[in-house]
Amino acid sequence: MNISISSEIKEKVPCTKIAVLKYSVNTEETNENLWEFMDSDIIPAIEAELESKNVTELKNIASSRKAYKAFGKDPGRYRVSSEALIRRIKQGKGLYKINTVVDTNNLISVESGFSAGSYDTDCINGDIVLNLGHAGESYKGIGKDSVNIENLPVLCDNDGPFGSPTSDSEKAMITLSSKNIITLIYVFTEDEDITALLDKAAGYIEKYAKAENIEKFIIQ
Fold first, then answer.
1. Are 136 and 111 in contact (CB under 8 A)?
2. Taking the alpha carbons of 68, 155, 79, 108 in that order, is the dihedral positive or negative?
3. Are the beta carbons of 130 and 2 closer than 8 angstroms?
4. Considering just the CA atoms, what is the radius of gyration of the chain in Å?
5. How far apart are CA 99 and CA 174, in angstroms?
6. Which of 48, 118, 59 is nearest to 83 (CA)?
7. CA distances (Å), 213 to each of 135, 177, 202, 203, in order?
8. pLDDT digits (tens, 9 = 90+) for 63-113
9. C-alpha angle with apex 190: 126 to 164, nearest 5 degrees?
10. Mean pLDDT, to the nearest integer, of 127-156?
């Protein structure tokens, strides 16, 4: 499976990159150690930072919002998932508990500020391209109605669009049956050590999702 970024995306936001983790796993319902870490370390750190900043001022959320504007998408209406998750923390709502892969994905997202998405590769047909959604395109989001993906950066396989930094479709969603996974971290800035980001993310996936055979690489 090849993963690439379209020229249309690069023309509008040249610094666009995708940090990729590919691995195998037995997806489980939950990992209590992950939630203890979230409650004792991650969430308090985010709450402390938000005492002096607005969510939109957080570095990597700000860069993602700037990228969305360049793509022609309203970042206030179509928020990247990291912003949506951090807003839940700010509101005291906490995060959803889905399964060990998705929960670890969300840990990576809220700590880094970058949107991350995890996908069942057995449900993906062919290569993946990050492209811009076209006029009139949409798909049913996970737990949502139709998502308007026009001008949204979207992942496409041979069957069409299936995921984005804002909301993924049900096509390659992670379930308890998922075994072969890719986790993609959407990076829209030059100001980030992506190798260090990947190393930390891989450590989380290995520790909390019990991932094996982890591969790490960067698409740019």
1. no
2. negative
3. no
4. 16
5. 8
6. 59
7. 39, 18, 11, 12
8. 999 999 999 999 999 999 999 999 999 999 999 999 999 999 999 999 999
9. 35
10. 94
**Average pLDDT of every residue of the chain:** 96
CB atoms within 10 A of CB 193: 9
CA distances from 76 to 82, 100, 165, 196 (A): 13, 29, 14, 29
CA distances (Å), origin 83, targets 59, 88, 89: 11, 9, 10
Question: In the beta sheet, which residues pair with residue 185?
Answer: 19, 116
Phi, psi angle pair for 17, to nearest 5°: -140, 160
Using CA atoms, how far apart are residues 115 and 92, in angstroms rounded to an integer? 20
